[in-house]
Amino acid sequence: MDYIHQKVRYTRNLDEAGITLHYPDPSPELKLNYSNINVNGDPFTILNIPIVLQDRSIVGLLQVGIYTGKEAEILHNLQWILVLSSISVLAIAFLLGLFVSKRALKPLHNVILASNRIESGDDLIKRIPRSKPNDEIGLLTDTLNSMLVRLQEAYLDLNEAYDAQRRFVGDASHELRTPLTTIRGNGDLLKKLWSTFTRNPHQPLEPHHLDLSLEAINDITAEAERMTRLITDLLTLARGDSGNVMVKKSVAIHPIVNEAVRKANLLPRTVEWRVEHIDELLPVHIQGDSDYLQQLLLILIENAFKYTSSGYVELSGLQKDGYAGIRISDTGIGMSSNELSQIFERFYRADISRGKTSGYGLGLSIAKWIIDEHAGYIEVLSRENEGTTFIVWLPTIGAI
């Protein structure tokens, strides 16, 4: 475009195509720029280049254009491709996300099922399946499986404790019923005898009536003493079951053994009573309760006297590896290897001794509790018809 002569010159291809371009009027604001135009419905991109003299006056305009229809079509197709691709990618991502999330949440579903089983309390044996990757779900599964193991163990322990408590109550009721029956029978006898005397106060009592009354009173007294001992033993075990903590302090073991020996001399027995090597315990001190330790020794000594009809019962002192030992041996009826594992159970009495010796089967249970409270242990050696040896080991001060 020549602004001075107001002439427009076109290239031959524009003339042949019959295309005319719009050109702007000259103005100081006319600068080099691009513009998009449509010519006969066809898109073109035009480059406008103003021709400027040194005095900054515009004398002409050069326009260079290019047909952009193919590029526009490519861009339009690309736009549709991108739209369709985006939709396809979103659909694929959605389906893949569903698959992955379902697969990833399957262990959590197993966890929920296991939790429901735990809540219903009907299945603590099964475990949650463990996935191979050691990821957070795997660690959670391991944690929950460990929790299930602990819950199962606690559940079994509670069942065992409940069964033991039920047996304990049943045995205690049985043991208490026998003396109560005796007391009631003797009471009825005394009531019958003395009601007859009350109705006929002037009739003299026959000698055998007095003898029967005295026997009944003696039976009542003996059974009351038995019940007192049983209740005392039950109270001791109940204190242990309730978590009662002994008040322990530093005590010398030798005076405790000496006192137990002195009290043992007063117990009924039919065999020789020996005391050997207790001076081995002279320098020994332990952390314990002297009353309970005396009770422990008297339980073992009294049992030895009870189950030994001939021979001897011997008490001796030992020391070994930071432990003080007290050995009580007898030449009594002994026990079989099958019975040794049960002698510390409550109300258990060896079959060979049932009906032959008095007792409730609580003494060794109390002894075992006292030993455990003192962080000690007990060894038992026995043979039928040859005798039994109990060795109580208690940690000395500095060895606990």
Automatic annotation (TrEMBL):
Keyword RNA-binding in record: no
Ranges of residues in domain HAMP: 102-156
InterPro entries: HAMP_dom, HATPase_C_sf, HATPase_dom, His_kinase_dom, HisK_dim/P_dom, HisK_dim/P_sf, Sig_transdc_His_kin-like_C, TCS_sensor_his_kinase
GO molecular function: kinase activity
Reactions performed catalytically: ATP + protein L-histidine = ADP + protein N-phospho-L-histidine
EC number of the protein: 2.7.13.3
Pfam families: HAMP, HATPase_c, HisKA
Keyword Magnesium applies: no
Protein keywords: ATP-binding, Cell membrane, Kinase, Membrane, Nucleotide-binding, Phosphoprotein, Transferase, Transmembrane, Transmembrane helix, Two-component regulatory system
Domain Histidine kinase: 171-398
Annotated membrane topology: Multi-pass membrane protein
TM spans (from-to): 80-100
Subcellular location, record wording: Cell membrane
Top EC class for this record: transferase
Name of this protein: histidine kinase
